[in-house]
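Lecture 7 notes: from sequence to structure.

We start with a single chain of 276 residues. Read the sequence below before looking at the structure.
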Amino acid sequence: MTVSLAQVDAFTSTPFGGNPAAVCLLNAAADPAWMASVAKETAMPATAFVVPPAGSPEHADGGAFGLRWFTVTAELELCGHGTLASAHVLYESGRVARTEAIAFQSRGGPLMARCSDGWIQLDFPAIVAEEIAAPPGLLSALGVDPARVGYVGRGRLDCIVEVANESIVRDLQPDLVRLRDVKARGVIVTSRSSSADRDFVSRFFAPSVGIGEDSVTGSAHCCLTPFWARRLGKTTFVAHQLSARGGVLKLALDAERVKIAGQAVTVLRGELLSLG
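Now the structure, written as tokens:
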């Protein structure tokens, strides 16, 4: 017995950009320890495991695909690029028609994906951050002058730090060892964009879950979108994540949901032979 495995670059239209994810299409729910071992083997920022409704008894009545994501060290509660990659594989393989929406059930709750004008739009929960005093050591670990910080907040998953301009975000060289001490999944650093065609920029660091810097983090934009909606007084955005690989996202705040649109490209297809 083999398992279909693909590597997808998410939040990009060209190979070797965006954020890579491995996608395993399973016939039935798998043992979490086995999934964690596969994620260590692929060594991707995220490995997604997709179970069809018929193979996921706990969700059989809802017609939703089961979806779980693992890094090399942890299972994730929410993962945007792993969801985008999974939807891309389901559409590209013909398992779901591009005219149909895909429902997922995940640890982060119900999620949706649908094709729209050559992009895949995800429907994720909005996460509203509350302003807090900067946790001890956070700004020094980021290497940011406190005088250049306009806001520090904490959402359900991550800390968010707004800085004065895009150059600060682009030039960050954080101490990733010290950032592990921050009690959050990760740290988002953001500012307004200096480009007229983009609204804001960000970078995302998550050493506590085995990711030094994530290339493009869809789930971080669940927090960034309502944050910038308050700052800019609008509900639709184009965002740019300023990692080395980089990626562009189209975003919309819709009440308590965030619509996250991106593109994706498959760079590898194969079969996983070892089932443990």
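Helices lie at 32-42, 80-92, 138-142, 166-171, 176-179, 221-232. Keep this in mind for problem set 3.
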